[in-house]
Amino acid sequence: MAISIWVSYVIACILLISPPGPTVTYLITTSMVHGKKTAYEVVWGSFFGGLVCLVLSFIGIGTILNTSIILYSLFRILGISYLLYLGIRSLLEIIKDSSVASQEIVPPKKGEGFKNGFLLIFLNPKNIIFFASFLPQFIDEQSSLYAQVIILSVTYLVIGLVNDFLYSFFASHIGKLLGQHSEKWINGIGGLAMVLSAIIVIFQNF
Question: 3-class DSSP state for residue 200?
């Protein structure tokens, strides 16, 4: 693989990964409300979710999802449902705690952030299909296929990891600047954003 192709791939990855989506929305909300340590669990969860999607795309699952309306729809419904669940749960926490002004939002249990980050990535069928269609565009047929797949996959995952860590780091500091009393409305805004994201995804294909 020529270095110019790899540089072009890196630029393309940065442009695709940087804009915040539903997972980053959840990540930022978690970091601002519960701190970057809790958010880092989400980061690693989304990292391994992306890794699994990459593996599945290369063993042909991406092609199957792209051609099977039933399987694609099933994954899509599960992903939307989980996003709605996380958003509605955040909103319900605000309602539940509104009667006690001094009560802090209970932090998620250990490992819950990892699970949520993983499922938000894994349950989106577009991620698997994306890898199956995006990476081959940068593969040189004259060079070793497996070496290129590894280089491109690792590059994408590392860029995604750095991107998520940066979002978590800065969101955590913004949360500290806003103060502890802002936790509830930040959690509410994040929950509302996730619900709206799910609604947008529902109507995307209509």
Answer: helix
